[in-house]
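pipeline/complex-builder :: batch 7 item 3
reading input block
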Amino acid sequence: MKQSGYQTKQKKQILDYLIAHSSRHITAQELTRQLNEEGFSVGTATVYRCLEQLADQGILRKYTIDARSGSCYEYVPDPCGCREHFHLKCTCCDTLYHVTCEQLDALGAHVLEHHGFAIDQTKTVLYGVCARCRGEKS
Amino acid sequence: MKQSGYQTKQKKQILDYLIAHSSRHITAQELTRQLNEEGFSVGTATVYRCLEQLADQGILRKYTIDARSGSCYEYVPDPCGCREHFHLKCTCCDTLYHVTCEQLDALGAHVLEHHGFAIDQTKTVLYGVCARCRGEKS
DNA sequence: TTGCGTGCAAAGGTTTTGCATGGCA
DNA sequence: TGCCATGCAAAACCTTTGCACGCAA
């Protein structure tokens, strides 16, 4: 829970990939596949261990939408909390939308101040129906 | 996505259990274990299938905190009366808070207008830590 | 040189699927 | 009677762990 550890090639490669794909979440499995396709050989266990470590350090955000597809990780550009975003999941097409919005940030502040409740954005998903599905269906 | 299905003993038993334990979440594994301990024999696959079906119908709410421990299900007490407010669930003490708040209503309107996304309040739960737990811990 | 990091494979957990059987409507 | 639901076991997954070897400091 403490070590920043050595700076290894693998750790760098993993973080570089996530930074290059900021604001997009990816599973450990998918990340392993991507890295190996890019010609950088890395083991599955290593990816899991690195992701967990980076998440503990607050560099990555970890969250789980569905048990079947596994946990997702994502690079957090600004750990201070200004650029955090919420997730909207369409119950119709299952698409997951990432939304950065000052209105949502304001909501978090309001709920904390007036209701004493500290929203954990990593666990919260707003469910509903997206514009595309609303247009297509009835 | 369509069938309400037959009314079988298993389905009834599962729903009864969840209703009796409202506002408490449970995993499919744990539920299977509980039911069998109560002397009601039910297969794992059946539990998974029933829970999925009930969740599709909006009777249960499904969510996943951790990929390793699996998905959790929970009975939604009053689908009609809960339409006007949001739910805040404390991940620490498992308490479910019902909050009516113009700020939350405004959020729904904003997200619909600016992001084209219609939030379904009956399916959405905001996770975080409540005031009491924040005070107790550190 | 020391000790952590890595990689492989195996283990452990949850969830899904195939198929024959049983039960609701 | 016609199907859907069930149950069992096997399969498919994701994730973690044990252990020997490699590499950063």
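note: Residues 9-75 of chain A form a domain with the Arc Repressor Mutant, subunit A fold (CATH 1.10.10.10).
queue -> next item
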